[in-house]
Amino acid sequence: MIQLGDLTLHLDDPVTLAALGLGALVLILLLLAVRGASRAAGALGPMAQQMHMMGKRVNALADGQERLAGGLHHVSEAQAHSQTAMLQLMEQRLAEVQGKMAETLHGSARRTAHSLGELQERLQAIDKAQANITKLSGDVLSLQDILSNKQTRGAFGEIQLHDIVQKALPSDSYTLQATLSNGRRADCLIHLPNPPGPIVVDAKFPLEGYEALRRADTPEQVQRAAQAFRLSVRKHIRDISDRYILEGETADGALMFLPSEAVYAELHANFGELVREGFERRVWIVSPTTCMATLNTMRAILKDARMREQAGAIRRELHALYADVDRLGTRVGNLDRHFAMAAKDIEEIKISADKAGKRARRLDNFDFEELAPEDETAIVRVPQPGE
User: Fold this and answer.
1) How many whole angstroms separate alpha carbon 383 and alpha carbon 143?
2) Residue 200 Cα distances to 13, 42, 196, 303, 311, angstroms
3) How many Cβ atoms from other residues are within 10 Å of residue 161's Cβ?
4) Among 64, 283, 374, 376, which residue carries the largest CB count within 10 Å?
5) Strand, helix or coil at 193?
6) Nearest to 187 by CA among 163, 222, 211
7) Quick one: pLDDT band at residue 19, thresholds 50, 70, 90?
8) Which phi and psi angles does 174 have, rounded to 5°?
9) Are 256 and 236 in contact (CB under 8 A)?
10) 239: closest CA among 187, 191, 193?
11) Average pLDDT in the 259-281 region?
């Protein structure tokens, strides 16, 4: 129980307890309020300083914002100037590019025109070549027509033989279409010395048998064509042997000229018995290539024979040359003796000239007292008139 003046409070009374609790709570709150006020008073100073600093920062921020605004204005002006300069530069570059493009297009047009001109020239050349090919085709057909005829084919072989002989031998060493004593006419007669003597070259062209052999497809056709080719070549060999090998008039052999390398190769590759038969009958089968080699060998033989013919004249010329050289040696000896006598005379003249010079120098100095008497043997007395 608590006695407060006339008021008595019982501790077991709930109202009393509630009142006491409320008073204690109020007291505690007052203490906390006082303590908080003291703390607020203590923290007010730093807060004021912070507010002052914040004001300065706000002012600095405002200044920076003004400077930023000025810088942004300067940047905008610089950017505008840069854009203007960039536009001008782009316009210049665009003008240069346009000029270069125009020049390039002009050059391309010029080159294109030149290329078109060259193309036109080439097309014209192609047209000419086509015309030449067409003409050549006609010539080939003409050649086929020529070769299909036996007489014209023989003339073709003779012309080819003439060209080869004309290129290989001197013009006076052969005769074309020479007539022999038996009345036969040889395509070419080469005048070789004895031995072996003049040799006949006859052109033969067994084209039908060769073409039939080339066209044969079956074994029977090949056999028939080979037999026909064999008979044709054998007949040519026998004709040449019988007509153009004449004892005492021609050489003991003759040449059969085949104007086709293909026929010559076929003959030596698959018909060796015909080549051997030609050897036996002393008929040598030649093609354009081997004929040229054979004629070059004959040319060497002709050159050697002509050298032997001229050997006597060469010996006479050598004898005359030896006599001339001997006379030249004699005359050189005589000239040498004349030169020796002339040299002796010149030496004596030099001695006399030296003496005359000495006398002239003495007379020039008037040294008559120093003149020594001459050796009487050296003085030549001049006879006086009347003596």
Assistant:
1) 113
2) 178, 153, 12, 19, 28
3) 22
4) 283
5) coil
6) 163
7) low
8) -150, 160
9) yes
10) 187
11) 87
Report how far residue 125's alpha carbon sits from residue 166's, in angstroms, rounded to the nearest whole number: 35
Q: How many Cβ atoms are within 10 Å of 225's Cβ, its own excluded?
A: 19
In the predicted model, is pLDDT for residue 137 greater than 70?
no
Q: Which residues make Cβ contacts (< 8 Å) with residue 290, sequence separation at least 6?
A: 264
Q: With a cut of 50, say whether residue 142 has pLDDT above it.
A: no
Can you tell me the mean pLDDT for 184-206? 85
| pLDDT value at residue 262 | 84
The 10s digit of each residue's pLDDT in 211-226 is: 778 787 888 888 888 8
Residue 142 Cα distances to 131, 200, 203, 232, angstroms: 16, 30, 21, 24
Tokens encoding 370: 């120093």
Cβ partners under 8 Å of residue 302, min gap 6: 169, 170, 173, 191, 192, 193
The overall pTM is greater than 0.70: no
- Kindly report the three-state secondary structure assignment for every residue of 337-382: HHHHHHHHHHHHHHHHHHHHHHHHHHHHHCCCCCCCCCCCCCCCCC
Q: At 173, list the tokens.
A: 């060493």
Helix 311-365 vs helix 288-309: crossing angle, to nearest 10: 60
Tell me the average pLDDT across 88-106.
Answer: 80
Reduced to 3 states (helix: H, G, I; strand: E, B; else coil), residue 74 is helix
- What would the mean pLDDT of 111-128 be, rounded to a whole number? 80
DSSP state of 192: P
Calpha distance 249→191 (Å, rounded): 11
Structure token digits, residue 170 = 């001197």
Residues in the chain: 387
Lay out the sheet containing 254-257: strands in order across: 174-179, 185-190, 199-203, 254-257, 283-286
Q: Averaging pLDDT over each range in 24-38, 40-54, 126-140, 287-301, which range is the top one?
A: 287-301
Q: Which residue has the tokens 């210049």?
A: 92
The single-letter code of the amino acid at 336 is D
